[in-house]
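Students often ask why we bother encoding 3D structure as a string. The short answer is that it lets us treat folding as translation between two languages. Here is a chain of 36 residues written in the first language.
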Amino acid sequence: MWYFAWILGAGLAATVAILNGMWFEAREANKIDAKR
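And here it is in the second language, the structure alphabet:
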């Protein structure tokens, strides 16, 4: 049953990484728009 927890943890980590990347990109885009 350890594999279930491992897959769940890996999936959660991937989701956090994707959301973090999207949030960072959105922040950078807002900074660029504010400079104009």
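Translate back mentally: Helices lie at 2-35. Keep this in mind for the problem set.
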